[in-house]
Amino acid sequence: MEFFLQLLVNGVCVGLLYGISAMGFVMIFKASSVLNFAHGELLALGAFFFLSLVTWGKLPMAVSFLLTLAGCFVLGFLIEKFFLRPLIGEKLIFVIMLTVGLAAMFKGLILLIWGGNLHTYPDFLPPSLEIQLGAIYIAPVYSATLVISVIFLVLFGLFFKKSSQGIYMRSVADNQKAALSLGVHVRRVFALSWAIAAMVACMSGIVLGIINGVNVHDLSAIGLKVFPVVILGGLDSIGGAIIGGIIIGLLETFTGGYLSPSLRDVVPYIVLVFILMVKPYGLFGLVEIERV
Amino acid sequence: MKKLSFHPCGNYRENYAQELSIFETWFGRVSLGVFLLILFGVAPFFLSPYLLYILNTIGILAIAAIGLNILVGYTGQISLGHGAFFGVGAYAAAILATRLDVPFYLSIPAAGFITALVGMIFGIPSGRLKGLYLTIATLAGQFIIEYVLIQWESLTKGTMGITLPGPSILGWTIAGDKAFFFLIFICLVLMTWFAVNIMRSKYGRAFIAIRDNDRAAEGMGIPIFKYKLLSFAISSFYAGFAGALWAYYMVSITTEPFNLGLSVEFIAMVIIGGMGNIPGAIFGATFITILNEILRYTTGVLMNVSVITSMGLNMAPLREFVFGLAIVLFILLEPKGLAELWRILRSNFRLWPFSY
């Protein structure tokens, strides 16, 4: 029973991480219907920016965190401007392959600059976040993740429901042409959503880096694990991303704990195929109605 | 026999037979013949073993790329699992050859058919999914196949790998780059011929109709699920066939090369070569293979430059960077790929002095 509970807690923690990593991905998809294969590399870029600022630049935590967020904001903006904007209206495969190419470029760059080794951040989380409930132990990083993910979920919920930019983004996601004709600045919305999404991605990259250490290969693998998560949650629902993340996290830890550790990494994809066969738009996704 | 003429300056076709013809002019047919003659008569006897090795790799990858182009370029279904299908073909051939002692001229096509079956299984989601959802489903297929290849140890020997016997026919063993050159390129010519002709048939036209608008295609009486599955089957047949050739050529295989990176390389070949263009797939395979070789050579040279090594820089990731850059630049600057550049080059000659 204790083993079960510990697995349950671990699963939820890992799942929250997946959920956070998926948020930036969902934002990009929501606003511009781009499937971003470079997401894992964006996570890694954020984590490495932060690493350089903290360990080499010797800047205080808060300052380097804000600087990283600002840098990723600009980076997302530039990616949209130079790579994605020329492809508006092009076929899906070009957009997908462009992000695959970007992923290879970023990965090469990161490996060139920082190398493929595992780096770690200096420890800075307050130990009071540690939770011990009977036999169940929750490491401080995980409770920090929980707090951060709830904060971001609320922030994004408010952003999309209340702020005018958020409403513009939803309108563009819903129907580009209609939004354009009603006076929404579609290009600005695209640029902004990439910028914000890159920011969210690098934030999640930092969180992942705090927990697992910073390593390009691990982070880009997580970028691929985002796919089952978002398909489960529906590609365009941020709350769904968190739920999908938790489901995948639970699935992984339970298969790892009870069945076999090697099956752990594949099980999300097996489930993914079955879900797609039964519910082609994911569990919480919007059903698209097509007309000829 | 067609009139001895150059390309006409415009579309002067008068009937369907002309529309379907592969060679518009007598000149094109002859130049292809001359090219094949040089390829088979001169290349294997004068090239160094290293260059022959590159040529053979291009030939094998081109077969797989043609298969992917049928699926992606003609039927419009994006697959990120082609590298895994390539691996299934390689393992099918290896297992047939080592366990059942099947001769190579049977095991290679059999590997193709086995892979076609596997491809059809992973094509089933295409009945309900399309676009990016299908892409993600094939991505899942890639990971699942990779896992099965590594974990099904009783059959695939896991990470140990399998060593294949040399292929032999009528007591004559095919060994060495030169002998393989003939095997691979005869297969490539046959497979290209088959692909070009299937695209002129009812099936090819149905594929193109599905690509352009699947709902409209269904409305016109094309059973799209059947044709999508068929497209998956043909495409994976090509992948499996190429994988089997590769297994024989490499002699021993492990699961390592058949990862997502290989699938991405195949898609890059199709895009860089030109989607919906059979020669384009061959151009793409040539481009990617040569790019890989050049990058390997350059990074090797850079590793030995004392300034760089003393700075502690590792230049190996440069390969990945340039590979990504090539994909990005092709998509942004010439989305129709090398086939389009080749067409522009030829029409420059034809339209001279008024080329643009």
The topology string of helices and strands of chain B comes to HHHHHHHHEEEHHHHEHHHHH
Shape of chain A: globular
Run of helices and strands of chain A = HHHHEEHHHHHHH
> How many beta-strand elements of chain A?
2
> What is the radius of gyration of chain A computed over CA atoms, rounded to a whole number of angstroms?
19 Å
The most extensive interface between chains reads: A-B, 46 and 48 residues
Describe this structure in words.
The complex is a heterodimer of chains A (292) and B (356). Chain A has one domain. Chain A contains 11 helices and 2 strands, in the order ααααββααααααα. In chain A, strand 1 and strand 2 form a beta hairpin. Chain A is globular, with a radius of gyration of 19 Å. In chain A, 48% of the residues are buried. Chain B is an all-alpha fold and 356 residues long. Chain B has one domain: ABC transporter involved in vitamin B12 uptake, BtuC, CATH 1.10.3470. In chain B, 73% of the residues lie in helices and 2% in strands. Chain B contains 17 helices and 4 strands. In chain B, strand 2 and strand 3 form a beta hairpin. The longest helix of chain B is centred in the middle third of the chain and has 27 residues. At the A-B interface, helix 4, helix 9 and helix 11 of A face helix 7, helix 11, helix 13 and helix 16 of B.
Summarize the structure.
With 292 residues, chain A is an all-alpha fold. Chain A has helices at 2-32, 39-56, 61-84, 92-114, 140-162, 164-174, 176-181, 186-212, 216-233, 238-259, 267-278, and strands at 131-133, 136-138.
Please write out the topology:
The complex is a heterodimer of chains A (292) and B (356).
Chain A: H1 2-32, H2 39-56, H3 61-84, H4 92-114, E1 131-133, E2 136-138, H5 140-162, H6 164-174, H7 176-181, H8 186-212, H9 216-233, H10 238-259, H11 267-278
Antiparallel strand pairs in A: 1-2
Helix pairs in contact in A: 1-5, 1-6, 1-8, 1-9, 1-10, 2-3, 2-4, 2-8, 2-9, 3-8, 5-6, 6-8, 9-10, 9-11
Chain B: H1 16-20, H2 26-41, H3 43-46, H4 49-74, H5 82-99, H6 104-123, H7 131-151, H8 153-156, E1 162-163, E2 168-169, E3 172-173, H9 176-198, H10 202-212, H11 214-219, H12 224-250, E4 252-253, H13 260-273, H14 278-304, H15 306-310, H16 317-333, H17 337-351
Antiparallel strand pairs in B: 1-4, 2-3
Helix pairs in contact in B: 4-9, 4-10, 4-12, 4-13, 4-14, 5-6, 5-7, 5-12, 6-12, 10-12, 13-14, 13-17, 14-16, 14-17
